[in-house]
Write a structure and sequence with these properties.
The complex is a heterodimer of chains A (about 90) and B (about 500).
Chain A lengths: L3 H5 L4 E8 L7 H10 L3 E4 L6 E7 L3 H8 L3 E5 L2 E2 L14
Antiparallel strand pairs in A: 1-3, 1-4, 2-3
Chain B lengths: L7 E8 L11 H13 L6 E4 L10 E9 L6 E6 H10 L3 E5 L24 E8 L10 E7 L4 E6 L5 E6 L3 E8 L7 E7 L3 E5 L10 H5 L13 E6 L10 E6 L15 H10 L12 E6 L7 E2 H13 L4 E4 L8 H12 L3 E5 L17 E9 L23 E3 L9 E6 L3 E5 L3 E5 L2 H17 L2 H4 L5 H12 L2 E2 L5 H4 L3 E2 L8
Parallel strand pairs in B: 6-12, 13-15, 13-17, 14-15, 17-18, 18-19, 19-21
Antiparallel strand pairs in B: 1-4, 1-5, 2-3, 3-4, 6-9, 7-8, 7-10, 10-11, 19-20, 22-23, 24-25
The chains are: A alpha+beta (about 90), B alpha/beta (about 500).
Chain lengths: ~90, ~500
């Protein structure tokens, strides 16, 4: 059975990037504890300890950010494209 | 004293890292900030020297310091748009951020959008696309516009018989574009009478074609680089191709095999060939060590996280230059922080300005520590009736055969311009293709930068820190030439590796 927090975070998961602000090494133990407390899943930890891609429900983000404190920035994962030059007709237009 | 243009705008100057310059880490930037601080108390315009070759006459940039946060802190300056690229190249290692004005966050009113019913198609066109010997060309994209301004029309891709059926309204197509995948020039026609069956014959790429890249840069006559320069290409992967040697790389796409950094989409291989093709077709930087960092899952956009990983890997691999022929409209502080890390590790990032038909410069090109490259073309370097003939648009250069490509974005963030119309380069399957875009201009600039820097091992052998990146920018600045398009289109102009830029 899901707890209230798990229920809140169960749907509409979104990817975010955590980036440590300072030049000093982050406190990974503290960070891991906060991730666990908020049910945040690390999707890609290849840039740890300073950067990680995590999955979190957007409505849980504020509490997560508060607990992380000011040492970390949180950015949404975005998609980039190859710039195209080909002309396109709008779909369904004739 | 030089008069300041009436079209001056305000910019905030910040050190590369943090908000205050550290005199121990960056003594030159600290000295410059102190100089600006002292002038901030006066209201007059000051003049700064432009970096040029010793033999060239000196020039000055007019700057007004409007405000300052302490000696080591941010400076608010006013500078002409025309001079901004000159300033960036003469005083590198500084973040230059446009002054912005924020408004209260009041919700905008919703606007009603009227959805019109689509008219019924009145014509069905069976289109066949072939080469000059009537051999079918599969995989070509045909776009027929009944109303170009409204983007109204029909499009499709040819099958194995070179055929596609389009349903279109009206008797005349205002514009027709045919885009082959590779091996042929595309086709552009206006006011085409529609018939039930139509055939378009495409011209093949021939060995005799001198494209815009080779018009300006005589790549076939150039020797390999005299000194090692390593270039990281962040793209769809690069190669394999018989004309390309890839030193190494990594697939950064989450969940994919990191050893698979090859390209099967074409974009990255084309970019790689512009830099380093070494077969019958030569790139601008033959001998450069190419690293392929694949960030695009097949047919999808690239995650900013994967791009960050790629920049991080390029830093670890000790690249000298990074090519990013990609972009998006919005700023992305996550990627900026890694471009900043690269700069602090003595690496320059080149990025495509974007192809939004004179839209604002895309991110990351617009980021002040990246080098933004826009695209130009040259008449008579592509066949009449080719897709490229539809990209000719003002402004024209001092030489009126040069033009800024119609798709190329513009803005004060533009640093350089390079050939990006009708560029012939490598394509998967040991083929060749013609592509257009700031995506092609970007590697042209990156490759020429590699060639210029290879002539100065003293800079390349410097310790990998911000000073190295600063010196690289300053050195490149003396190998630029304005083509007469205006600063918003060309920034500091076109890079050239010797005194023989063909223009």
């Amino acid at each position: 059975m899901l707890t209230l927090k798990e229920k809140e975070c169960y749907t509409l998961m979104t990817n975010f990037i955590l980036k440590h602000k300072e030049a000093t090494e982050p406190d990974i133990k503290k960070m891991t504890a906060i991730l666990n407390a908020h049910g945040v899943r690390v999707l890609d930890g290849s840039l740890l300890p300073k950067t990680a891609l995590v999955e979190i429900e957007e409505s849980c983000l504020e509490g997560f950010q508060t607990d992380l404190g000011t040492d970390w920035n949180i950015y949404p994962e975005k998609k980039y494209k190859v710039p195209e030059t080909g002309k396109k007709a709008k779909k369904g237009s004739l | 004293m030089k008069n300041q243009s009436k079209f001056s705008e305000n910019y905030i100057l910040l050190p590369v890292s943090k908000t205050r310059v550290n005199p121990q880490e960056s003594p030159k930037v600290a000295k410059f900030f102190t100089e600006l601080q002292s002038s901030s108390k006066a209201t007059s315009t000051i003049t700064l020297n432009v970096r040029k070759r010793a033999a060239q006459p000196s020039d000055e940039i007019a700057v007004k310091v409007l405000d300052s946060i302490d000696t080591e802190g941010a400076k608010l300056i006013s500078i002409s748009n025309e001079e901004l690229a000159n300033f960036r190249f003469s005083y590198p290692g500084i973040r230059i951020i446009p002054e912005k004005f924020y408004r209260p966050a009041v919700c905008a009113r919703e606007r009603i959008k009227i959805q019109m019913n689509q008219a019924q198609a009145s014509a069905s066109v069976t289109l066949r696309i072939t080469d000059q010997e009537n051999k079918a060309i599969a995989g070509a994209t045909a776009v027929f516009f009944s109303d170009f301004e409204a983007s109204r029309g029909a499009s499709g891709i040819t099958d194995q018989t070179g055929t596609v059926i389009l349903k279109i309204n009206g008797e005349v197509a205002e514009r027709v574009y045919i885009y082959p995948e590779h091996s042929y020039w595309g086709c552009f026609q206006t006011n085409v009478a529609l018939r039930s069956e139509m055939t378009f014959k495409l011209q093949p790429i021939s060995a005799g074609n001198t494209d815009a890249l080779r018009y300006f840069y005589d790549t076939s006559a150039w020797p390999p680089l005299p000194h090692k320069v390593k270039i990281g290409i962040i793209d769809t992967g690069v190669g394999p191709h018989k004309d390309l040697e890839i030193l190494g790389g990594r697939n950064m796409v989450r969940g994919e095999n990191e050893a698979e950094y090859n390209d099967d989409e074409g974009h990255g291989t084309h970019v790689g060939g512009i830099i380093g093709a070494l077969g019958n077709l030569k790139g601008v930087a033959v001998g450069a060590e190419i690293m392929s960092y694949r960030v695009f899952p097949k047919g999808q956009g690239a995650s900013n996280f994967d791009i960050m990983k790629a920049i991080d890997q390029a830093i670890k691999d000790e690249c000298d230059l990074i090519n990013m022929s990609l972009g998006e409209a919005q700023d992305d502080e996550a990627i900026s922080s890694y471009i900043k890390d690269a700069y602090n590790a003595g690496i320059l990032c080149f990025a495509a300005s974007g192809n939004d038909n004179r839209g604002p410069v895309s991110f990351p090109a617009a980021y002040s520590l990246a080098i933004a490259v826009s695209a130009m073309g040259r008449k008579d370097t592509f066949p009449d009736g080719s897709v490229q003939s539809g990209t000719v648009r003002e402004p024209y250069g001092q030489d009126e055969n040069n033009f800024v490509a119609d798709f190329s974005n513009q803005g004060s963030e533009t640093d350089l311009i390079a050939p990006g119309v009708g560029i012939i380069s490598t394509y998967p399957g040991d083929r060749y293709a013609i592509m257009d875009g700031t995506s092609m201009a970007c590697p042209a600039a990156t490759g020429i930068a590699a060639r210029i820097l290879a002539g100065n091992p003293k800079i390349l052998n410097m310790a990998r820190n911000q000073t190295r990146a600063d010196e690289m920018v300053k050195y490149l600045a003396i190998y630029t030439k304005l083509l007469g398009f205006g600063a918003n289109f060309e920034g500091k102009g076109m890079l050239y590796p010797n005194d023989e830029l063909h223009s």
